[in-house]
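We store chain and fold; example below:
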Amino acid sequence: MWFKNLRLYRLTDDWTANEDQLNEALAQFPFNGLSALQESTFGWVPPFGDSPLLCENVGGRLFMAAQIQEKILPASVLKEHLEEKILAVEEADGRRPGRKEKEALKEAIRAELLPRAFHKTRRVSLWIDPSRHWLVLNAASEKTADDVTAGLRDAIGSLPIVPLGKLIAGGDLLTAWYHDPQRRPEGTELSADLELVMAQDPTVKARYRNLDLDAPEIRHSLDSGMRIRQLGIVINDQCQGVIDDAFALKRLKYSDTLVETNGDSDDPRTDTLLMSDTLTAWLTALEPQITEPGI
C-alpha cells in the first residue's frame, strides 16, 4: 500500500478507540454494491486483501479503507432523453410540458437509465496515528476526502479533526521554505515544479517546471508580489511529489531503494509500514510549524 495523494488532518483530541472497537463500529457500515436504482453507495472494506478485518494496527497506526461506487449517468444523456420525451408530449398533446411535468419526466428517465448505467469504483485508504495526532487520507480530491471523513464520523459517532490547511498559512509557509532553507522541515528538499499566484489577485498565475530553483524568472515573479501555490517536494530522498497551499501532497512517487527494502515479502503490511514510517518522519518534522488546535 503506497499512498499517492495525501490529505492531512490533525486530531483535536486524544484518540482512544483501538482496532477492535473500530472493527466493531465499521462492521455496521460495510460496503455493499449498488442496487439497480442507486446512484451511489459507500461502505468500509478490509484495508488488506488477505484479512477480513476492517481496521488493522500496523506500526502503531490504525489503517482502514472505504469504498465508493457511483453510477455514471452524464447530464448530457439525461438532457437528450428529456428533450425526446418533451417533443413526444408536444406532438401527442399539442402542448409543451410545464416545469413540474418536466421534473417528473426527468425522474422517470433517470429511473429507466440507472439500471443500465456503467459504474465506477474508488477505494480510499487512510490511517490514524493516535500517538502523533494525525489522520492521513489517500485521496486526490477534497470532496472525496470529505465523503470519507463524514463516513468515518457516521460510523464512530465523533471525529475530532481539523484539515491541516486550516492550521497553516500554506502559501506563505511554502514561500518561506523557498526563500530560506532553514525554515524547511528536516529532510525536505524542493524542486522547481511551481505554480505562483498574485497575492492580491489569485487569477494572475505563473507556472515553472524544469528550472533551477534560483532561476531569475522565479525570483522576479516572487519579487513582484506573487506567492507559491504549489511546489515540488522531495522527502528524505525517499519520495517526491508536489505540495499545495492547502498542504495536500499529490503525485507522490517512492524511490526504488525504499520500495525494494521489503525484499521478496508478499505481506502488504510491509510496504505499508515502510510508506507510513517515511511519511510520519516528515510529518513529525513539520509539527513545530503548525498552529495546534488545542491538543
